[in-house]
Each structure stands twice: as structure tokens, then as C-alpha cells.
Amino acid sequence: MPDRVALYLQDAHPLQEAIHYVQYAEANGFEAVWQAESRLVRDAIVPMAAFAATTRRIKVGSGVINNWTRNAALIASTFLTLDDLAPNRILLGIGAWWDPLAANVGIRREKPLLAMREVVTVVRDLLAMKRVTFHGEFVHVTDIELDIVHGRREPRHVPIYIGATGLKMMALTGEIADGALLNYLVSPAYNAEAMEALEKGAKVAGRRIEDIDRPQLIVASVDRDRKKALDGARKLVTQYLGQQPHIMKASGVSQELLDEIAQVLTWPATEEQIEQAMALVPDDVVQLITASGTPEEVRAKVREYVANGCTCPVLYPLGEDVKLMIDTFANGYSH
To answer: Do the Cβ atoms of 299 and 328 come closer than 8 Å?
Structure first.
């Protein structure tokens, strides 16, 4: 089986340009594109529709929508519509969102595990063309179905991936989802905990970890000039070291470095503070939690993630030369 590889896009490029990159990725054997939706900027659905309409083979996923702002019935009808556009090519990635953004738009994220379980259960049943009545704590629907009068009435094949970070959500993913969309800016070794949690959840449902797809977001900063590639990723890494010190520590970053950065960065950080903190972050820390450097170094780092449980690298291109990143993985990561 050839190496699986996918593309991850946020909002760094105009949409027309993003479409061009997705077409280029498709032409170079990429399996999927995942469109981010996190900050209040670019939603996932419109770009997904654009990518689906302008390609023929590549799969198109949400990486990830949240389970709070669209109700379960709307999620099901949205993904039904996307599947109409690109049958059997749509992937539903869904996550639990984050605060303070959720709170700032009026959402109280209580009992995130139960809320996710209820939404996934109802969305899956609706896409299976079942008539659904469900009264939980978060989802209340009575005698509803996807009311297709014109078009395909058969069950839709839309795999559901949970963008889990915490270990309890990871275990739930192993129990109820088709796959886990693993997070980025962690070291490959950090994956071990995620695999244990997924396996624990899988056992609850009588499944094995091999039954659960495990694509993983990986920051890829590729340049033939090694310094340029590392500097391209250093800013993102520096911000993450300040925002997520617990994850960074679990990935093997020293407490001393985290303390030094904490003295420089306050939140929200100014550009000047970020520049100052970047000077503290050595190359080896950049390379610990990203795939950064020359094409050969980046492929080698991606192989580490795959050796640690990732089934499909989902590459987040940093830097101006997105095509070079795609070219680097045009024949997978084994060469």
C-alpha cells in the first residue's frame, strides 16, 4: 500500500489559491485535504464545497468543526449536501472547541464528552437514513430524518473523525468514531498516550485500535535553506510554548525553557514579545514538535510520527512555497 498523505489548510491563502493547492495535491497523489475551522475567521464548509467541486478524487474533510454552534440535524444535512457534491469523498471532522472563544460567543461547554457522544450518535443515525428520536442532555430531536425527495436516498458513507486532544476525549473517540484526527505541535513520543487511550475506548466497543483511522496534523516547514525552514516554524512553536506549556512539557521540552519563555510572553502577546521569545527557542525544540528543515529532514520526521501510531500525516504547510512541501511528499515519505 502506498504511503498515505494529506494536506491541511487554514486561512493563510486566498480561497482561489487554496483551491489551486488542493488540485496540485490531488495531482501528486495526496489522499485528502482537511480544512481548518477554529478561530472566528474562515469557516470549513464553504472551502470544503469549493475543493469538492473543483477536484475528482481527493477526499475533503473538516478539520474540525465544533459540536456546539451547529446542531446535530444541521450538521447531518450539511454533510449530506457535501456528499451530494462529492459522493464518498467527504470526511466529517468534529471537535469540542475551546475557551475563551466559546464563552465569548455565548456557549457554555459543559460535559464535553456527553455532548460529543450525543451529537455523533444522532448525526451518524441521520446520515444512515434512519428516522431519529433522541432526547439527551444536549441533543433533543423528535421523529426527524433527512427528508430527501429528489436524489439518493441510500445511507451516506461519511466517516466521522473526532479532533481529540485530552485523553478522555481520545478514549471516547476509540469507542464511537471512525477515526481520531490527532493534534499537531506534539512530539512523536507524545502519541503513545493517545494510542493507549484510543485502544482503551476501542475495547469498550469490541474494536481494536487498528479499526480506528489515526490521521495526524503535522506542521511542515520545508525549505532547501535549512535556516529559513526552521525560522519559518519558530514563531508558531514559540507561541505554542507560551500557550500550551503542559503539552510542551509532556512532549519533552525542558521546564527551564518554558519558564524563560513565560517571563517574556504575556497573553495576548505583542509582536515584540514574540520576537524576543523566539530568540530563546533552539533549533532542536523546533524540530522536536514540527517537521522542519530540508525536504529529507522533514520526510524523516514525518516517518517518526507514522512509527508512533499516525496512519496518515496531514501536513500543515508553513512558509511561502506550498508546492515544494507538496512535492516533498509527492511519492509519500518513504523515499
So the answer is: yes
